[in-house]
Amino acid sequence: MTIKTASDRPTMIEFREVQKYYGDYHALRGISAEIRAGEFFSLLGPSGCGKTTLLRTIAGFEDISSGAVLIDGKDMSNVPANKRPTNMVFQSYAIFPHLTVAENVGFGLRRDPRSSAEKARAVEEALELVGLKGYGPRAAHAMSGGQRQRVALARALILKPKVLLLDEPMSALDKKIREQMQVELIKLQRELGITFVLVTHDQEEALVMSDRIAVMFDGEIAQLADPETLYRHPNSRRVANFIGVMNFLPARVTAESDSHVALEVPGLGPLEVTPDQVAAQTSGGEATVGFRPETLTLLYEGQTASDREAPGVIDEVVYYGDMTYYDIRLDGVSAPVRISMRNVFGRPVLDVGSRIRVAWSPGALVLFR
Amino acid sequence: MKSPGLRLFAFAYLIFLYAPIVLLPIFAFNSGTIIAFPLKGFTLHWFDQLFSNATLGQALRNSLIIAVSTAIFATTLGIFAARASTRYRFPGKPGIMGLIMLPLVLPEIIVAVSLLIVLLGIGVPLSIFTVILGHVLAATPYAIAVLNAAFSSLDKSLEEAAYDLGETKWSTFRLITLPLVLPGIVSSMLMAFTISLDEFIIAFFLAGEQVTLPTYIFSQLRFPKQIPMIMALGTCLVIASIVLLTIAEYARRRGIAKTGAKDTGGFL
Ligand SMILES: Nc1ncnc2c1ncn2[C@@H]1O[C@H](COP(=O)(O)OP(=O)(O)OP(=O)(O)O)[C@@H](O)[C@H]1O
Ligand SMILES: [Mg+2]
Predict the structure, then answer these.
(1) How far is the CA of B134 from the centre of ligand 2 (A)?
(2) Which of A56, A283, A357, B26 has its C-alpha lying 20 to 30 A from A180's C-alpha?
(3) For residue B32, how many other CB atoms are within 10 A of its CB?
């Protein structure tokens, strides 16, 4: 688990009401947020939501239509990309194919007044940092995907930027190398203490790596929080759906006070939730309760629920080795709800059509209204 | 090529393409003055005549100056246009690009005549320089077509990465863009050079008193006595073309091997 960033860290990047139009297309619709120094920050969202655009406004590749981007307290409106204290790892890695690995990594030092011997040492150190010691003389275009990414990292880090920007750096890697690189990136970020801003559309990647995540939809930040808060207390159904799996059941609010909200939920019966379980979604209309698959438990013969239970029938079984997903039709509800159960040795996987009972707890619910 | 019919077709096609070229050296070394079989005997006389011909020397010099200038100007203009069309969005872009490419499909005689009228109208004396103008106009669309391919296969983020690492727009162009589109530039220069070297109509209209290789050859065809010498000239030109293309292709392949780029065919 990531060590949570202390919230009293100074601000490194500040977006003030950032708007971006491409012609008539409104790509960023008033982004206001702060990224703290030394934070591993992720921009997460579906394709086309404006993540890359927002990242590029930090780098200086994209002029904003209105608002301001501040880095380390300084307004960047008149600072071009080549003068900003940021460096970027591109999605395609953008390795210069006609140069060697060492020439790629040392590219940013061309204007550095140090002697060439000192620069060569800096390059070697950067290569060592990313685990490519001794690869300097190789042709950059002959490197594998994972190695290219390391070259791109070393090249971006050699100028010791205040902020490292990464645009979907892992999307071109296969699963094994991706997971390995995720761990290495986290370690690197801790070691260097540089602010990392990562763009990703992979919610798992964002949860694993980030101190905080901004979830974006349609050019707006829908929610900005640490991974645990995002997962447990999504502020809208859209965020909840984007991060992990969430079941939804329609609910009717029957009574409301300062200390609790009373609900009637078909399939679960009457229940009460506390105000901190209520998502700040202000759409009005139909209320919905949401719950994650792992907050429900199948009860086997002779087991009893510690809190509440509900009867139902197994509709579908998906076996994953360590886990089994059950789709369950609760009595009185037409849409199935998904439950994930860890497979324990000696406990059988149940069959489709079995009548079962499900243990649940009102404390694990989120109310969207 | 499985079917015998297709094989035959390919064979006939190659003969049709290359037989005239093979005939050039045969008659260039033939001592007879009439271009017909049977051959009479071996001679180097025509080459001797060729190299001692002062007008021809002048024509060759003019043509080389024109072709080299055309290659440089057309490719330079092509670089600007190809970069603009692959990197920037601007209003009216398709129309503008279409207009630039128009000389590609315009009959050359129309271009030549209208250029002549314009140049005479504004009082520019006809010279090598006016031929260069015409040839640049004719060759630029070809240069753009070749360079467009080179520029559009260049990943935009390479330039952004260099800029991000502290280089200026210009040094980025010099350090990253230029080396990576170099094979395209070589192809473009070569194409513009060859287009200019054997261009007849524009040169015929715009050269004024000057001669170029094609206009000189045309003027000599009226004299049957000169034809074997023209054959010798053709032989030299074929050899020069082969050497030039070989060098260019070698350079292109080396460039590709160095950057590990995909070989997209290029010129040869
Ligand atoms: N140069 C541009 N001109 C016009 N529209 C653009 C331009 N760049 C991006 N857009 C549009 O802006 C929107 C946001 O693009 P952006 O690249 O930021 O998305 P993204 O969240 O990074 O998506 P992806 O996950 O697909 O990379 C998209 O709808 C895109 O079509
Ligand atoms: Mg993107």
Answers:
(1) 46
(2) A56
(3) 14
Q: Is the CB of A356 under 6 A from ligand 1?
A: no
Q: Which atom of ligand 1 is nearest to the CA of A91?
A: 27
Contact A88, A59 (CB under 8 A): yes
pTM here? Answer: 0.82
**Nearest C-alpha neighbor of B197 from the set B227, B240, B155:** B240
Looking at the predicted complex, does its ipTM rise above 0.95? no
Chosen for mutation from B157, B165, B170, B258 (greatest number of chain A CBs closer than 10 Å) is B165
Chain A residues in contact with B165 by the CB 8 A cut-off are: 82, 87, 107-108, 155-156, 159
Cβ A53 under 6 angstroms from ligand 1: yes
Q: How many CB atoms lie within 10 A of CB A366?
A: 25
The answer to whether A197 touches A13, Cβ cutoff 8 Å, is: yes
Fold of A245-368: OB fold (Dihydrolipoamide Acetyltransferase, E2P) (2.40.50)
Neighbours of B57 (CB within 10 A): 12
Task: Determine whether the shortest distance from the Cβ of A45 to ligand 1 is under 6 A.
Answer: yes
Q: Tens digits of per-residue pLDDT, A249-304?
A: 998 888 888 888 898 898 888 998 988 888 865 555 578 999 999 999 998 888 88
Choose among B200, B221, B195: nearest CA to B211. Answer: B200
Say if residue B20 is preceded by a cis peptide, omega within 30 of 0: no
Kindly list the structural domains of chain B, giving each domain's residue range(s) and its CATH number in brackets, ordered by start.
Answer: 53-259 (1.10.3720.10)
What residues form DSSP beta bridges with B53?
none
Q: Which residues contact B125 (CB under 8 A, 6 or more apart)?
A: B208
